């Protein structure tokens, strides 16, 4: 059963927490979030903030720090076939309380319905903190263009 191999990215002063479900095969191999070249996460967020797309891992971390965005996933370990959220079973959820106790998180956003559904099932009953579902940046969500994603994801700007 795969175990989440990537530590949470939690910059000091983070006020937004963005949660995925579980890292894709490519992200697990690379040891970094949204590493699949077709995932639009690292193209989308800079567009929201009118910045250049970060290239290196360090630039991505600096971007998150500048904008006080924490990044992690709902699941600590699970059974999963490839990168398919639909195949996820035997879930063990991550403990988000250390992040929420350390930082002043104003809002939790879920990258896609799968992470939102998992959050509602495993996290919300424990944390008593609701989350907002945003359309997935995954290439599997091909019905959403980058422009449509940008319009929906503008919700995070209202928190800052």
Taking the alpha carbons of the first and last residues, their distance comes to 38 Å
Contiguous low-pLDDT stretches (5 residues minimum) are: none
Number of domains: 1
Number of strands: 6
Q: The biggest beta sheet, please?
A: 4 strands, parallel
In CATH, what is the class?
Answer: Alpha Beta
What name does CATH use for the topology?
Uracil-DNA Glycosylase, subunit E
Global structural class: alpha/beta
Principal-axis shape equals globular
User: Which CATH architecture would you pick?
Assistant: 3-Layer(aba) Sandwich
Search tags:
Uracil-DNA Glycosylase, subunit E, 6 helices, globular
Describe this structure in words.
It is built from 6 helices and 6 strands, in the order βαααβββαβαβα. By secondary structure, it is an alpha/beta fold. It has a single domain, classed as Uracil-DNA Glycosylase, subunit E (3-Layer(aba) Sandwich), CATH 3.40.470. The strands form 2 sheets. It has a 4-stranded parallel β-sheet with strand order 2-1-5-6. The protein has a two-stranded antiparallel ribbon with strand order 3-4. The longest helix has 15 residues, at 113-127. It is globular, with a radius of gyration of 14 Å. It starts with 15 loop residues before the first strand and ends in a 7-residue tail after the last helix.
């Amino acid at each position: 059963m795969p175990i989440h191999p990537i530590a949470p990215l939690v910059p000091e002063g983070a006020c937004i927490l963005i949660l995925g479900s579980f890292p894709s095969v490519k992200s697990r191999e690379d040891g970094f979030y949204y590493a699949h070249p077709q995932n639009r996460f690292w193209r989308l967020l800079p567009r929201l903030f009118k910045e250049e797309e970060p290239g290196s891992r360090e630039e991505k971390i600096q971007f998150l720090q500048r904008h006080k965005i924490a990044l992690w996933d709902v699941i600590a370990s699970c059974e999963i076939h490839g990168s398919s959220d639909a195949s996820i079973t035997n879930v063990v959820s991550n403990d988000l309380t250390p992040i929420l106790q350390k930082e002043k998180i104003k809002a939790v956003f879920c990258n896609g319905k799968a992470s939102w559904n998992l959050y509602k099932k495993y996290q919300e009953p424990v944390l008593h903190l609701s989350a907002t579902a945003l359309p997935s940046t995954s290439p599997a969500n091909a019905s959403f263009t980058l422009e449509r994603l940008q319009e929906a994801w503008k919700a995070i700007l209202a928190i800052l």
